[in-house]
Design a protein that fits this description.
With 478 residues, this protein is of the alpha+beta class. It has 16 helices and 13 strands. The chain has 3 domains: 170 residues, no CATH class; 149 residues, no CATH class; 79 residues, no CATH class. It is 40% helix and 12% strand. The strands form 4 sheets. Strands 2, 6, 7, 8, 9, 10 and 11 form a 7-stranded antiparallel sheet that branches. Strand 10 and strand 11 form a beta hairpin. It binds adenosine monophosphate (AMP) and magnesium ion. The site of adenosine monophosphate has 15 residues, from loops.
């Protein structure tokens, strides 16, 4: 199917106009296509062989309007760094409509009613980061928005310096956020709040439609999904950086990639966001902030469900989080049963990774071939005695496994990625892209989508991060 044969639907526009602003994208000057993600093409049910790259470029730049498309920006509010902000909304994102169950959204396509002082644009560097990272997270099995394609342009955008404008077409099953509910609660629009809950039920929780206590059950699922998402972030060393409630998805997926990072050496208090001086969104705070954000959502839902019932569901958060984390860490260590003392084994591993300044990704990858020979592991730590002592305990624990060493290795090699997109790697692709060389963007897309495979030509990205690039902080401006 060609893009020009596609028909989009816009169910969100069946809601009242207070929920959105119908606004057309503003094209960038002199656009050029950077990359198309063939996996996302298939997701939409399109054919990679017949897709016309020129049409994709025009779609992203807003000069090709698909049949049925009625572009709109969504209304929401949110708690930013702990403080409530009443009027946020899609200030630089424009939704085109839906197909195959995916909502298509342009990011960086110009001003909307919600832009406030902003220019509605996104710069090349942050667009490349979002494009690649959402695909990397997906390949690691972490729920996330997806990315269809990216364009650059010769249009200049003012940030700390002049940069060029870019647009990503991203996809999600839903773009509703915790902050969407907060908007209607805090403006006392409780009928609209209920309509939003009904919309979300229909869109993303259809199995709960018409069921007794459906709103409560939906909240309960959001609690569980968010708790599990936090466990997934923690298990791979991902730091989101801006966990404001407007960046929290109501379907529990990772959205709105800003100054995120995959940690290099493990550091529990790591803060990737350079403006987050208090460390509110540091790595080790993420699970707690997930809970805090769910409390804000519960508050916003209080006209629909009694606080007591909401609180009861929220209190299951810790259990969901811990259960998922234990499962994920057990898999990372190749354990095929669960034992009472496992959490202590995990905790001491994280302590020794921190003490030994261990780069998480190569460490777990080497551990995936561990067979009593500790040489390669010991080479990764500044605290070898602690690691040796831990390996003794690990050996004892592995003796309780019920499957063979070889089977453990095979499982672990599909659990512990060889490649994650560390910030220094992304930066290399950005530097080249700024010189109009997009080969590394496309190579990294391939690496991101196949993180467990061996790619000998990219071996250099599988080792420890060079010292000068380790655990840097990133600017929020994007
Ligand atoms: P973020 O921190 O990127 O999630 O953005 C927070 C809010 O600011 C959202 O309402 C965005 O739509 C808005 N925003 C961020 N950057 C811009 C921009 N360049 N122009 C307009 N609105 C923006
Ligand atoms: Mg956002």
């Amino acid at each position: 199917m060609k893009l020009s044969d596609v028909t989009l639907t816009t169910p969100y526009l069946s809601l009242d106009p207070i929920f959105y602003h119908e606004v057309a994208p503003t094209p960038l000057k002199k656009p050029h296509l950077i990359s198309i993600n063939s996996d996302a093409v298939s997701l939409l049910g399109l054919d990679n062989n017949t897709l016309d790259p020129k049409e994709v470029e025009s779609l992203l730049n807003g000069t090709l309007t698909l049949k049925g498309s009625r572009p709109y920006a969504m209304t929401y509010a949110g708690h930013q760094f702990g403080y409530y902000v009443q009027r946020l909304g899609d200030g630089r994102a424009i939704n085109l409509g839906a197909m195959n169950g995916w909502n298509l959204q342009l990011k960086g396509s110009g001003v909307t009613r919600y832009s406030r002082q902003g220019d509605g644009r996104a710069v090349l560097r942050s667009s490349i980061r979002e494009y690649l990272m959402s695909e990397a997270m997906h390949a690691l099995g972490i729920p996330t928005s997806r990315a269809f394609a990216i364009i650059g342009s010769e249009e200049k955008v003012a940030r700390e310096a002049w940069e060029s404008g870019a647009i990503v077409l991203r996809l999600s099953r839903s773009w509703i956020r915790f902050g969407s509910f907060e908007y209607f609660f805090h403006t006392n629009k409780h009928q609209e709040l209920e309509k939003l809950a009904d919309f979300l039920l229909h869109e993303s929780f259809p199995h709960l439609e018409g069921v007794e206590d459906s709103y409560l059950k939906m909240y309960s699922e959001i609690v569980k999904r968010t708790a599990e998402l936090m466990a997934q972030w923690q298990s791979v060393g991902f730091n989101h950086g801006v966990m404001n409630t407007d960046n929290m998805s109501a379907i529990g997926i990772t959205i709105d990639y800003g100054p995120f990072a995959f940690m290099d050496t493990f550091e529990s208090g790591y803060i990737c966001n350079h403006t987050d001086s208090g460390g509110r969104y540091s790595y080790d705070n993420q699970p707690r902030i997930g809970y805090w954000n769910l409390e804000r959502l519960a508050h916003a839902l209080s006209p629909l469900i009694t606080q007591e019932k909401l609180k009861h569901e929220l209190e299951k958060y810790g259990e969901y989080f811990t259960a998922k984390l234990l499962e994920l860490l057990g898999a990372k260590l190749g354990l095929d049963t669960s034992e009472e003392n496992d959490s202590e084994l995990f905790r001491s591993l994280f302590t020794l990774m921190e003490n030994g300044r261990i780069d998480m990704t190569p460490f777990f990858r080497h551990l995936s071939r561990y067979d009593q020979n500790r040489e390669q592991l010991l080479a990764l730590t500044l605290a070898p005695n602690q690691l040796n002592e831990w390996c003794d305990r690990y050996d004892t624990r592995l003796a309780l496994n019920t499957t063979t060493t070889d089977a453990r290795h095979q499982r672990m090699l599909r659990t512990n990625p060889k490649y994650v997109l560390k910030n220094y790697i992304l930066q290399e692709a950005i530097d080249k892209a700024e010189q109009r060389d997009f080969t590394l963007v496309n190579d990294l897309l391939m690496l991101a989508q196949n993180p467990y495979d061996e790619h000998p030509e990219f071996e250099r990205y599988a080792g420890i991060t060079p010292q000068e690039h380790t655990n840097l902080k990133l600017s929020c401006s994007s």
